[in-house]
Design a protein that fits this description.
Layout: H1 2-31, E1 43-48, E2 51-58, H2 61-66, E3 78-88, E4 92-93, E5 101-106, E6 112-119, E7 127-128, E8 134-141, E9 154-157
Parallel strand pairs: 2-3
Antiparallel strand pairs: 1-2, 1-9, 3-8, 4-7, 5-6, 5-8
């Protein structure tokens, strides 16, 4: 009888714990902004080395989570520029990507420190990381970074 009472108590405790975990996870998920709602698109022009790009700016959590996922393609010299609040070894993956990209990693001094060439959708769930902390990451179509090299400078320009 005591064994049954202990078993019942353990089951009740585990059930209550799982329920609390569910509530915590659900409420945390609810606090992340809905990335499916329309967002203001911020665009700009940048130059890296001698190459100009027309970019969308991903400067909010919603935009960084969405990234280029489910986008069909990028045009020549188009990209998505991720701008973070602070430098870090921010990881990127190819979840829900429909095309290959080059990833250009740029530090807080606006210097290109690494280039990941032709990351493919099939590489998911691999996560790509920079070799050192970065403040900016530029995603462009595969083979669009051929004229960019380590040490090139990022500048924001008006066109």
């Amino acid at each position: 009888m005591l064994k049954r009472r202990v078993t019942t108590s353990v089951v009740a405790f585990v059930t209550a714990s799982l329920f609390l975990v569910f509530i915590f996870v659900y409420s945390s998920y609810q606090s992340i902004p809905d990335i499916n709602h329309e967002q203001e698109t911020v665009v700009g022009n940048i130059k890296i080395g001698e190459t100009y790009f027309n970019v969308e700016i991903a400067d909010t959590l919603k935009k960084r989570i969405q990234g280029l996922s489910n986008k069909e393609s990028l045009g020549k010299n188009e990209g998505l520029l991720f701008v973070f609040e602070e430098s870090g070894t921010h990881g990127f993956w190819m979840k829900d990507m429909l095309f290959s990209i080059d990833i250009i990693w740029i530090n807080s001094e606006k210097t290109v420190v690494q280039i990941t060439k032709s990351a493919t959708p099939e590489s998911y769930p691999e996560i790509f990381y920079p070799s050192e902390p970065v403040l900016y990451v530029l995603e462009v179509g595969a083979n669009q970074s051929t004229s960019i090299k380590i040490g090139d400078e990022l500048s924001f320009v008006e066109k």
